[in-house]
Automatic annotation (TrEMBL), chain A:
Keyword Membrane: no
Annotated GO biological process: small molecule metabolic process
Protein name: Thiamine pyrophosphate enzyme-like TPP-binding protein
Record domain Thiamine pyrophosphate enzyme TPP-binding: where: 30-157
Keywords: Decarboxylase, Lyase, Thiamine pyrophosphate
Lineage: Bacteria, Pseudomonadati, Pseudomonadota, Alphaproteobacteria, Hyphomicrobiales
GO molecular function, one term: magnesium ion binding
Length: 189, 166
């Protein structure tokens, strides 16, 4: 198992001008990892829709990489999006699922099928172009460059536990000013 | 009264929309979805569930790209939370065209014997969503301006088909 904040710190070292969409607990940690970046997007609005937002961004911005930082509970609410994304086949979309086995933002209750659900297997069966699974930080640090270079849609199942605490500031997560900043940044190209 | 898919499709194109996100609906299948699927001017993204389309259209809208969501009223009802948050609370131009399955063409939706059809207009009104119903090609003249206004003013719209387009 990897600590989520450490995974995100490694990922952040490889990213610059990518749109990054975060869901709930991972979004809070991502805001702490890449604070104030105009291409952070955390206003997914309804649980499960991070992957669908990612597909929308990927369609609209074909020349820019789009990274989705999904949760396992969130993905379970929108499993069909795996099939939709694979069928749409955006080459610029990378879909990371931070699998902690719980609804962390809702009290830490276990997800259905905790420890038995094979998210990577589902993504592979849905038709993602490349699928990875990482369980230890060293392998992730070595492999992330290859993951980011693959033509998408790419899926990576990351087995994580919570790491260092980051502020759970929902006002910042849903800040309309951040959505405006993202729009302005995308208009600039 | 005659409502044609051809007129609706021309209006959608006139509004600058080239992407359609859809789950099939039998009431708009022949008149809209099949012709859109065969029209090379459109990119059709087939989604598994209607609330996905709300998220996809939202993501596209941040980059200034337009989309039409073509679904059945049952799918709209299933997607209420996504519409509530993403379309209404975030004030995004989410443009929905909604077929009213089993609606009687001669009746206003509020008088339909179909419960799910009957509650559509009150729900849209209560959510503050701009909405309209198309019963004839004369009504279609409102479509392009309605869609353009959604993008100009950044708000959701729901355009319902009061009868199956031919």
């Amino acid at each position: 198992m990897m600590k989520r904040d450490q995974v995100l710190k490694i990922l952040a070292r490889h990213l610059d001008r990518e749109i990054v969409i975060g869901a709930y607990s991972t979004a809070f940690d991502w805001i702490a990892t890449r604070p104030g970046h105009p291409l952070n997007f955390t206003s997914v609005g309804a649980m499960g829709l991070a992957s669908s937002h990612g597909l929308g961004f990927a369609i609209a911005c074909p020349d820019r990489k789009v990274i989705v930082l999904d949760g396992d509970g969130s993905l379970l609410m929108n499993l069909g999006s795996l099939v939709t994304i694979a069928a749409a086949a955006p080459a610029n979309l990378l879909h990371f699922v931070f699998e902690n086995g719980t609804y962390e933002a809702n009290g830490g209750h276990p997800i259905p099928g905790q420890g038995r659900v094979d998210f990577a297997g589902m993504a592979r069966s849905a038709g993602y172009a490349a699928v990875y699974r990482f369980e230890d930080l060293g392998t992730f640090e070595t492999g992330i460059k290859e993951v980011l270079q693959q033509p998408g849609p790419v899926f990576a199942d990351l087995k994580v536990v919570p790491g260092a605490d980051s502020p759970r500031d929902y006002a910042e997560l849903y800040d309309p000013g951040k959505r405006d900043a993202l729009r302005a940044e995308l208009r600039r190209g | 009264m005659n409502l044609t898919g051809k007129a609706i499709i021309e209006a959608v194109l006139e509004a600058g929309i080239r992407t359609v996100l859809s789950v099939p609906d039998i009431s708009t299948s022949d008149g809209l979805l099949f012709p859109i699927a065969a029209n090379s001017r459109f990119r059709l993204v087939r989604v598994c569930k209607e609330d996905e389309a709300i998220g996809i259209a939202a993501g596209m809208s941040y980059a200034g790209e337009r989309a039409l969501i073509l679904i059945q009223h049952t799918g709209f009802l299933d997607s209420i939370n996504a519409v509530r948050a993403v379309a209404v609370e975030y004030e995004l131009p989410i443009c929905m065209m909604i077929g009213l399955l089993n609606k009687e063409p001669e009746l206003p939706s509020r008088q339909s014997s179909v419960y799910g059809v009957r509650i559509m207009e009150p729900i849209l009104r209560e959510m503050g969503i701009v909405h309209d119903t198309l019963n004839s090609d004369a009504d279609v003249a409102r479509v392009a301006p309605t869609l353009r206004a959604a993008y100009a003013q950044s708000h959701p719209v729901a355009i319902m088909t009061g009868r199956s387009p031919s």
